[in-house]
Amino acid sequence: MARHEGRGMASVNYPIGMNLGGDPSQALIHSNPDGKFTVALSAIDLGQGMKQVSRQIAAETLGVPIEDVYVDTADSDTGPHDMGSFASRGTHRMGNAIIVAAREARGVLLEAAAEELEVNAADLVTDGRGNIHVRGAPSRSITVKATAQAAQFKQGKTIAGRGIFLIPLSAVDAETGEMNPNTAFAHACLVADVSVDDETGEVEVLRMTSAYELGRVINPRMVEQQLVGGAWMGISHALYETPEPYYPSPDHGPRDFNEYLMPGPGDIAPYHVTVLERPAPDGPFGGKGPGEMCANPVLPAIANAVYNAVGVRVDELPITPEKILRGIKANGGAKPGPRRGGPVNWR
Amino acid sequence: MTTMEMRKDLFADERDDNLNVVGKGVQRQDMPGHVTARTRFFDDHAFDGMLHLKVVRSPHHHARIRAIDTSAAERAPGVKRVLRGADVPVNKNTLLSLINFGKDDEPSLAVNKVAYKGEPVVAILADSEAQAQAARKLVRIDYDPLPAVFDVEETLKAGAPVVNETYPGNYFEYHERFDHQKLRFGDVERGFAGADIVMEHRYQMSPIEHAPTETNGSIAAPEQNGRYVVHSCAQGLFFALGTTAKIVDVESNQLHFIGGTVGGGFGGKVDSLTEPLAVLGAMLTGRPVRFVLDREEEMLYGSPRGAERIYIKDGLMRDGRIVARHIRSYFDAGAYTRLSSYAAIKCTAHVPGPYWIPNVASDIYVSYTNRCPSTAMRGFGVTAVDFALEVQMDRLAEAANMDPMEFRILNAYRDGDMKPHRRAAKNTALVECVQVAAEKANWPLSEQAKRASSLLGGGAGERSQIPATQLDARGQIGRPDSRNGPVTQVLPAGTTRIAPSKQPVMEGARDGRAAPTQVPRYEPQRPAAPPPPAYQPAPPPYQPPGSYSPAPVHQPASPLPASPPPAAPAQTQHGAVRFSSVFGTRRR
Hints:
- The complex is a heterodimer.
- By secondary structure, chain A is of the alpha+beta class.
- Chain A folds into 2 domains: 3-15 and 184-331, Aldehyde Oxidoreductase, domain 4; 23-166, Aldehyde Oxidoreductase, domain 4 (2-Layer Sandwich).
- Chain A has 6 helices and 11 strands.
- Chain A has helices at residues 50-62, 90-117, 144-155, 220-239, 298-310, 321-331; strands at 3-15, 23-31, 37-40, 69-72, 124-126, 131-134, 137-143, 160-167, 185-197, 203-213, 271-276.
- Chain A is elongated and about 85 Å long.
- By secondary structure, chain B is of the alpha+beta class.
- Chain B folds into 2 domains: 43-146 and 210-301, Alpha-Beta Complex (Aldehyde Oxidoreductase, domain 3), CATH 3.90.1170.50; 154-208 and 304-471, Aldehyde Oxidoreductase, domain 4 (2-Layer Sandwich), CATH 3.30.365.10.
- Chain B has helices at 31-35, 71-74, 129-136, 188-193, 237-248, 275-285, 295-301, 340-350, 383-399, 404-411, 430-441, 447-451, 579-583, and strands at 2-7, 51-57, 63-69, 79-83, 113-114, 120-126, 140-145, 181-185, 197-204, 217-222, 228-232, 255-258, 289-292, 308-316, 322-334, 360-368, 469-472, 487-491.
- Chain B has a 7-stranded mixed sheet.
- In chain B, strand 14 and strand 15 (322-334) form a beta hairpin.
- In chain B, helix 5 (237-248) packs across helix 6 (275-285).
- Chain B starts with a strand and ends in a 5-residue tail after the last helix.
- Chains A and B meet through strand 1, helix 1, helix 2, strand 5 and strand 8 of A and strand 1, strand 8, strand 9, helix 5 and strand 12 of B.
């Protein structure tokens, strides 16, 4: 009886947003008289960081410091319509709506500044630190705050913008399935290293190594939290969780976290992610969205690693010790596959 | 334990990295509130005089309701109101009716029968949660159990119990014509006939729980002027608002939904499980109403990820090329549609995975069974088929005697390759992901595989073409005998019947609105304006882990892509763009 190490991989892509369109998001942005901006949305922050992504995109487009932008979401009396936070759509759809709104607001901001500086608005740039200045002549400048005060109390201008981003609805052909799943696609490849005990059937995920291409990364720390958290969900999905352990039989279902099998801290594997950025032509600053896909490659990569370790194909999730032991028995013992590569190039 | 690094060198010439705050790992605006417990979630909005709503659920998988007696419950301590199906103004809905997709098929409170164990039948509103729970036990419901069906293929057979009377064949109806969604591209049968190896396997995805830290729930309260405020954990605020307005039959501006800060969703908070009854309770009692699922309800009746059964048949050449792929899949919707109908379409667009294959077909069914309706969950329509596809790819690589990484790179789609839904791939990067993962995992690749690129070889020759395609009329609604029909027509090569979508509008320049396109992009304050230097690649190929600042690449700011002229409105072969003509009828 022995523990066998195995290595498996999987590669996937993932569509961003509701794949058939009919998928609008709106944003409203306005400044208070001190040049502090509020972004009003109906997007939902599920913990994934929707507010912060919105804030960074708004600050970038407005050209003001991030501290001067606050995102207010979601109140149906003040936030304009949004489909919601699902289908990995938040960054892409809402981000684009925010860019549209922020560009309009920025346009008014620069017009107001131009009036104060007595220059052409097209010659003005922002420094991202709260100043507006003439391109190439930093000394001819005015603060965003002074501009907003002038706009409100002197010029009678509303520094505000509205934005919508809509992927229009696509029909689907009944006979061929032809359609316009008009979205950006993200990509990933993941390698899982596992150890399988041929006596107990238990699987330990030793480590995972992945590469994700997500378009422009808006906030790398939030991307990291998504990819790592999603990978743990993938481990759990592959090896532990199910409300119907003998599906399609509905019996023996768990009722709470005492009975619902999930990995504990000791089951979490070391994980290394490399992120690639091929910007989406229709994304906000090229952003796509890492929301949903981060669990997807983990499931097959672990299944393929188990096969590489002991020669058992488990085609029904979750990959339980029972299924592995039955497979080993049917094969007349563990049948380890070829070793693939050497120690990983990270620690 | 975990590390992330950025490969800024890859696709660098496609990016303008001259950005101020996008790309920086700055702290979230909501994080201090989260870690100091000042963030308010929906359940942090208690009201004076608030009632608590609990539902009585079916103990049967499938049963006719003969009689309901709520008299004892109505007299129980603290009970202020008992709701039955007849109290719900519009007691039949389907979530996607908001976009005209599918027929109303699910009651808020069951009336004549229950179709799954846990289906709500009666709602109790009481002064305390304990009183509502106690009164729940006093409701007498007389059931006549019916045969139940749990298997996604058994349910499609003649003579299976009818789960959902709105769809008497136990399948979602597509295009008012078929019992499934088709994908047809080329001739898979000829592909299999010419293949060196043909392989078919069956895969079974398990359901799982969303298991959010915060269970589903909402608090509704009378506001003023006949309006109701609703503190909600919905993943789609206006989705929940629209669904609630329809079910309680009020104008949308009578509802004031507040949410946006949610304790985990993963797709499990799209269904508006609690908002309609909470608002109805507030309307009928004039009191604030809190309806929150406890953990057991969330786990047993809070709609899981749907299981899917997937059959993949592949034709493979000995040199490793896949020449034909057919996928047949069954989504387990449970007793009602919720969002499964949409997932099947998304799955169809995803077939055959991120690979170029000359002959592809799929048949995706949505089956009704007597279990809790499943719903959206992370990777909806894609996660399960990715599991099946990638295990199948592992098998195919072994059959071709190829390394699995090399096999992926050989078959990977590249820019310009035609996908089976008849649109060309663009902005692809699968090859690079495989190469980078192999490098980091110390998994050796051949020189040829290392030189491959998403930018090279795509769209060459037949890879960019739409082939002549075999059509059939298999699986007509109400005719299970037609599931094995012959080829009825060959669609000529190059045929498209769906107009391309209008390209996304990026610049705000539409509908006559002032176009702020002339607004310059961010430009850092510099001592003097330097001449715009030519692009320089970022010097270090690898960013050290933990460093999140993009390399300071000096590149003239380029505007976002200009929007091309709008295309003609999309037209279907039916001559309409309404959802109802796309997906089927909607009868209210």
